Amino acid sequence: xxxxxxxxxxxxxxxxxxxxxxxxxxxxxxxxxxxxxxxxxxxxxxxxxxxxxxxxxxxxxxxxxxxxxxxxxxxxxxxxxxxxxxxxxxxxxxxxxxxxxxxxxxxxxxxxxxxxxxxxxxxxxxxxxxxxxxxxxxxxxxxxxxxxxxxxxxxxxxxxxxxxxxxxxxxxxxxxxxxxxxxxxxxxxxxxxxxxxxxxxxxxxxxxxxxxxxxxxxxxxxxxxxxxxxxxxxxxxxxxxxxxxxxxxxxxxxxxxxxxxxxxxxxxxxxxxxxxxxxxxxxxxxxxxxxxxxxxxxxxxxxxxxxx
Length: 308
Known about the structure:
Elements (H helix, E strand, L loop, with lengths): L1 H14 L11 H10 L4 E2 L1 H9 L3 E4 L3 H6 L6 E2 L6 H4 L4 E4 L7 E4 L10 H11 L5 E4 L3 H8 L14 E4 L8 E2 L1 H10 L3 E4 L3 H5 L11 E2 L3 E2 L6 E2 L3 E2 L2 H11 L7 E4 L4 H12 L4 E4 L2 H7 L5 E2 L13
Parallel strand pairs: 1-6, 2-3, 2-5, 5-6, 8-15, 9-11, 9-14, 14-15
Antiparallel strand pairs: 4-7, 10-16, 12-13
Helix pairs in contact: 3-7, 6-11
C-alpha cells in the first residue's frame, strides 16, 4: 500500500510544472554573492554557463523533487544519502578529475531550506575537490538560464562518484574530538547558527541536551536571511556574522544541529576569505556526550552573544 501511494504521489508530481519555491532576489543579489565569494557561490546565469561548459552537477534536493525535474546529467546527492559523510566516516569524492569542476545545486530559500548545497560544497572541498561551485539558484532557474528543459526520473549513477575514507585533518572540518579540544583550549570561537529557541535550550530535533556549547555566540540561520527566506545580500550577510563575532581573535567553529546549516555558513565564510571550520557532528554529537560543557538560558552578554 505504501509503495502504491508513493507511485501515485510521484505520478502527481510528474503532472505538475517544476518551479522554484520562491524566485531568487535578482541579478544584483547574485552578482554580489559571486563577487564576495570569488565565484564560488553563483547565481543562475553563471551556474548555467558552468553547466554548459561541462561541470558535473550534484543535486541535493529530495529524491521526489529530483525525480520531478533535474538538470540533464545531474546526480542525486541529498544529505540523507550521505549521513556517513556527515559523521566523518566517509566522504564523497570524484573518482577522476573533473576538468570543469563540480556544480552543486538544490532547493533555495523558503520553508524547509537548510543550505544543503553549501554543506555538500564543504564536504567536497574538505575532500580535496578544489573546483566546487555552489549554485544559489533553484535547478529550474539554472535550466531556464541555460535554455534547456529539466529531465524527469532518476538519473543513471555515474562511474566517477565513490565514497572513500577521509584523510586525517580534513581542511575546514572539525570532528567531535577536535571540537572538544578547541573549546577547552579557547583556540576557536564557536558560532551557533540554529534558531534562538534552540540556542536558549529548546529540544527541537532530538538533541540529548538543550542549550548551546559553552561560550558560543549566536548567529541564527533566520537572522542571516531576508525575504523570501533567501540569504541576505552578501555584504549584509557578512556584516551580520562579523557583528556576532566582534572582538574575536580565534578562528570560527560553526555548528548547528547536525552540520547542514553550519556547512553552508562555513562554505560561505571560507569563500569570503574568513578562517572558519564546520563542526560536522554539531549538537547531535556534542549533546550526546555529558562530559562536554553546555549552557542554556536567555541570550545575553554572559553568553558572549549579542542580544538583538
